[in-house]
């Protein structure tokens, strides 16, 4: 039976494994963290559940709708009511003329449930808390070495799905330790192709209140659509069904790439007061004295450009495949999953 290694248990890697679930391919998934879903992440605090990365799922194609509503469990799947309004560089709110009326979905227990139900639906070996450092070409197959210097394999193919800067580092480290010139040249070229995708950072702040935060409109979320404000997104997580107790409000504030970039190596807690002041002005509401708060640094929040996917083609002959938002060129759940489904099809053809 052919063997496949998937590096990364984000949604693109899990989608590829799901696509291959009926194939005679032994799949092993290596994930550096403890859980699944990548930036489709959820945390809980004081009884509240909140999504501090991706905000919601917008079914972007028939394939995504079929996956969500026909193949995966829907018990916990819920639709988000309320509109998404915009605000400008001065913080003034308005209903955009091109109001996004697409459906917005999530899970009652958090958006990370999507990764969990995908993981439960696939007959793959999952090794969490395992960070892959580099890969080695050996006798026509691939060996994976983790940061504890434990070697895994051999595998007939490898699918790499971490954010482009991390995938590029794995490939370049692999090139530096390659045993022959052809493998070294291949891996170097792939590292450059993946590394051509540019990413932006983002700090997320979450504030919990035992009171109602007033709103001046029928919106669930606010987006700075001209990218001229220090805040990119403000969301009311308690609008999502079953996320907080009655009377409790949970507000997520995600900062702009420009604001975050100059602070990305600092502790996000240092700027909490500034963020509350900025968000209070946009909302024209009092965000002082939250009952609790949380922060998250997303060093590689989303791509703003696509990797050179044509330059990744030579990898296929050697059993190297790629999926993730850097292949799609946008930081959205639907397109990221699509790249995983496509990679699954490519791997099936290559290993059949």
TrEMBL record:
GO terms for molecular function: oxidoreductase activity. It comes from the Bacteria. Residues 110-347 form the Amine oxidase domain. Signal peptide: none annotated. InterPro entries: Amino_oxidase, FAD/NAD-bd_sf. Pfam families: Amino_oxidase, NAD_binding_8. This is NAD/FAD-dependent oxidoreductase.
């Amino acid at each position: 039976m052919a063997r496949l290694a998937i590096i990364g248990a984000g949604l693109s890697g899990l989608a590829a494994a799901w696509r291959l679930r009926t194939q005679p391919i032994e799949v092993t998934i290596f994930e550096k963290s403890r859980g699944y879903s990548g930036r489709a992440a959820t945390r809980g605090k004081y009884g509240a559940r909140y999504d501090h990365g991706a905000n919601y799922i917008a079914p972007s194609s028939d394939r995504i709708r079929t996956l969500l509503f026909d193949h995966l469990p829907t018990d916990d799947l819920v639709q988000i009511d309320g509109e998404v309004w915009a605000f400008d560089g001065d913080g003034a709110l308005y209903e955009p003329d091109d109001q996004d009326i697409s459906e917005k979905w999530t899970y009652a227990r958090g958006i990370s449930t999507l990764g969990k139900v995908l993981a439960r639906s696939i007959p793959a070996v999952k090794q969490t808390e395992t960070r892959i450092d580099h890969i080695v070409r050996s006798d026509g197959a691939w060996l994976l070495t983790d940061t504890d210097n434990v070697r895994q394999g051999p595998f007939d193919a490898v699918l790499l799905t971490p954010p482009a800067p991390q995938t590029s580092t794995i490939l370049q480290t692999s090139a530096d330790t390659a045993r022959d010139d052809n493998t070294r040249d291949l891996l170097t070229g792939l590292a450059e192709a993946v590394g051509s995708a540019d990413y932006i950072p983002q700090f997320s702040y979450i504030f919990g209140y035992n009171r109602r935060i007033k709103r001046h409109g029928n919106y669930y979320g606010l987006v700075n659509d001209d990218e001229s404000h220090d805040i990119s997104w403000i969301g009311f997580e308690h609008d999502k069904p079953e996320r907080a107790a009655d009377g409790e409000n949970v507000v997520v504030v995600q900062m702009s790439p420009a604001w975050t970039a100059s602070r990305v190596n600092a502790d996000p807690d240092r700027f909490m007061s500034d963020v509350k002041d900025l968000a209070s002005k946009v909302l024209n509401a009092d965000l002082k004295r939250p009952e609790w708060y949380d922060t998250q640094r997303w060093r590689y929040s989303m791509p703003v450009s696509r990797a050179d996917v044509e330059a990744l083609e030579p990898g296929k002959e050697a059993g190297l495949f790629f999926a993730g938002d850097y292949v799609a060129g946008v930081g959205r759940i639907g397109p990221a999953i699509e790249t995983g489904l496509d990679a699954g099809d490519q791997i099936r053809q290559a290993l059949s």
